[in-house]
Amino acid sequence: MKRIMSILGMLAVAAVFTGCYKHVPEEALAPVEVKDVALDITSPSQEETDLVVIAHVKKRLTEEPYTFTVKVDGREVKETVKGVKETESNIVEERGEGTHYALAKRFRLKPGSYKIALASEDGHAFTKRELAGGSVYTVIFDPVYGPRKFARPKGFREGVIGFDANFEVGNHLSE
Question: Which is it for the CA torsion 144, 145, 148, 154, positive or negative?
C-alpha cells in the first residue's frame, strides 16, 4: 500500500510540473525582435512588416518632458518627448493654451500576430493585430480626456484617462 501511495504521489508531482510547463508564455520561448527604424525608410520586404505608432497628448502649460512607452509583445521602447506650446487645435477637446506632446515611431518586425500597447504617465491602451509581410500598418493612440466638470466642457485640462487605439493599413505619416 505504501508503494502505491508513493507512486501516486510521484505521478501527482509530475502532473503539476507538466501543467506548469504548458503555461509558459509564447513570448518567453521566442522573444520578438523589434527594430526601431527611421520614419522615412523604404517599404519592408515580404519577410518583414512595418508598424508605425502615433500618439499625442495635450497637457496644461508646462516645460516638463513627457514619456510614452510602446510595447510590442512585451518588448518595451520608451520615448521621452519635449512639448510644444500650442494655443490652437483642430481637436475640440484640445482647444486652449497648453503643451502638446507628439510621438511617432516606426518599427520593423517579422509578420505575425502581435499585442501592441501604449502606456504613458496618464493612461494606457492596447490592440492585438495580425501583421502581414511586405506591408506597413499604423496604430494611432488618441487620448481620451477626463469628464466635464462643472460648466466647463470636456477637455485636456481635466487630464488624460486613457487612449483609444485606432488601427489602419498603410503609413499614416506619408498620407
Answer: negative
On whether the CB atoms of residues 138 and 170 are closer than 8 A, the answer is: yes
Per residue in 114-123, pLDDT (tens digit) is 999 999 988 8
SS3 content of the chain, % helix, strand, coil (to 5): 20, 45, 35
Structure letter (DSSP) for residue 19: H
This prediction's pTM: 0.78
**91-119 in b/e burial notation, b at 16+ Cβ within 10 A?**
eebbbeebbbbebebbbbbebeebebbbb
SS3 158: helix
**Predicted confidence (pLDDT) per residue in 64-95, tens digit:** 999 999 999 989 999 999 999 998 888 888 88
* 162 CB burial (10 A radius; 0-12, 13-18, 19+): middle
Phi then psi for residue 23, to 5 deg, are: -100, 15
Take residue 102 and report the three cell numbers written for it.
Answer: 507628439
